[in-house]
Amino acid sequence: MSPNYMRSFSEGCLRPPTVIGQFHTLFFGSVRMFFLGVLGFAVYGNEALHFSCDPEKREVNLFCYNQFRPITPQVFWALQLVIVLVPGAFFHLYAACKSIKQEDILQKSFYTGFYIFSVFLRIVLEAVAFWLQIQLFGFKVNAIYMCDVGALEKNFNITRCMVPEHFEKTIFLIAMYTFTVITVVLCVAEIFEISCRRLGFLKLS
């Protein structure tokens, strides 16, 4: 791919054809990624080391932590951010390869429909991620986790595990849910903006 294509691709990703899309990029790229990258590491970075069940048996701690966290929140949210970016990136890659200018996207029906489809796909992916987050993490992190170590001890046994910084993790969970909702609202608003422009209620830039 030539440098011109790469430049067009990067400009398309950073400056979508809609005002709300540009705000979404700013919110997604700065606030959400900063929150996850900096604060997420501070809250979850040492969770596995401080997760305590049986201080005399390290294998019990590891077994229960893997049961408590089938996937770490940082990894889940990082995957969510990457996957949600794919539809928009694919569209802008297509636009760069076809030498489509940003101002032409909202003027030609095919390009507009393709772009709306990429935005709608982002909404679907965010909704799926929201549902998966509920299934994996719930809405609250309890201070005590009851771990079934029967498979490890070869008998039925429940061990109490201490979850570090559970209150901070609960706040962080709610924040990530809120970010997902805000992103979905921005995507819906972007589709509404495109519709208004196509119908002539808003002037094309």
Brief rundown of the structure:
The chain has nine helices and two strands; from the N terminus they run αααααααβαβα. The protein is mainly alpha-helical. One of its GO terms (biological process) is cell-cell signaling.
Describe this structure in words.
This protein is mainly α. Helices cover 73% and strands 5% of the residues. It has nine helices and two strands. It has helices at 3-14, 19-44, 47-50, 58-68, 73-97, 102-105, 109-137, 150-153, 166-199, and strands spanning 144-148, 158-162. A two-stranded antiparallel ribbon has the order 1-2. Helix 2 packs antiparallel against helix 5 (73-97), helix 5 packs antiparallel against helix 7 (109-137) and helix 7 packs antiparallel against helix 9. The two termini are 29 Å apart.
* Secondary-structure class: mainly alpha
Question: DSSP strand (E) fraction?
Answer: under 5%
The biggest beta sheet reads: 2 strands, antiparallel
Count the DSSP helices: 9
**Cross-sheet strand order for the largest sheet:** 1-2
Q: What percent of the residues sit in helical stretches (DSSP H or I)?
A: over 70%
Number of strands: 2
- SSE topology string: HHHHHHHEHEH
